[in-house]
Design a protein that fits this description.
Elements: E1 4-12, E2 16-21, E3 24-29, H1 32-37, E4 44-54, E5 57-63, H2 66-76, H3 83-104, H4 107-111, H5 118-128, H6 132-142, H7 152-159, H8 176-190, H9 195-208, H10 214-225
Parallel strand pairs: 3-5
Antiparallel strand pairs: 1-2, 1-4, 2-3, 4-5
Protein name: Holliday junction branch migration complex subunit RuvA
Keywords: ATP-binding, Cytoplasm, DNA damage, DNA recombination, DNA repair, DNA-binding, Helicase, Hydrolase, Nucleotide-binding
Main location: cytoplasm
């Protein structure tokens, strides 16, 4: 299994990139969102990958974070969702957007992805709703280490045998929201709330207040979970 590819971009296609790793080129298929965030040819890049193997086909799919890779694997487990549809959903929503949509039961958000119909979107929500809390917790526990873009020293060490050159790699973005959501989920679980209802409330609270910290998320989620009337 090829779990990660680090090297330099040789060229970019409409739905893939060719990454040169010490003279060996790997074709990696990516979502539109991921492709748009990648640097240009000749620049250093690293992607977590998932290998699809069939009788007549082998394809690598690339993701900027382990959480996005996990969502890809889960989406592919849903009947009617192949690699193309999974990348379309991730390209439209991103990993955080998929987590929110599934936790909130937002079928319209899933259906907005190209090639995904209402019945398929409904299956995604139903089959993955109970799995959303675990992925949200995974995002929080990994935190900023989810970023696949390597540091300058890491990239130079990785590919020095083929093309030693100075590299300017972008810095990882902080993942405080994911950490706060994970901690809020844990707190609600300790209070006796079911994982699915806790995930829905935390996702809604995070959507309403993206900059909220853990305590704010817990208070907001508790208000959403409080009995109405």
């Amino acid at each position: 299994m090829i779990g990660k590819v680090s090297g330099r971009i040789d060229y970019r296609g409409e739905d893939h990139v060719l990454i040169d790793v010490r003279g060996v080129g790997y074709i990696v298929y990516c979502s539109d969102r991921t492709l748009a965030a990648l640097p240009g040819p000749g620049e250093a890049v690293a992607l977590y990958t998932d290998l699809l193997v069939r009788e007549d086909l082998m394809q690598l799919f690339g993701f900027p974070t382990l959480v996005e890779k996990e969502w890809h694997r889960l989406l592919m487990s849903v009947q009617g969702i192949g690699a193309k549809a999974s990348l379309a959903i991730l390209g439209a929503l991103g990993a955080d957007g998929v987590s929110r949509a599934i936790a909130l039961g937002d079928m319209a958000a899933i259906k907005a992805a190209k090639g995904v119909g209402p019945k398929t979107a409904q299956r995604v929500i139903i089959e993955l709703k109970d799995k959303a809390p675990a992925v949200m917790a995974m995002a929080g526990s990994l935190g900023a280490t989810l970023q696949a873009t390597p540091s300058t020293d890491e990239v130079i060490e990785e590919i020095a045998a083929s093309r030693p050159a100075p590299v300017a790699a972008p810095q990882p973005k902080p993942q405080t929201s994911a950490v706060a959501q994970s901690e809020a989920l844990s707190a609600l679980g300790n209070l006796g709330y079911a994982p699915s209802e806790a995930a829905g409330a935390v996702a809604q609270a995070a959507q309403d207040a993206p900059e909220a910290d853990t305590s704010d998320l817990i208070r907001a989620a508790l208000k959403l979970l409080a009995p109405k009337g």
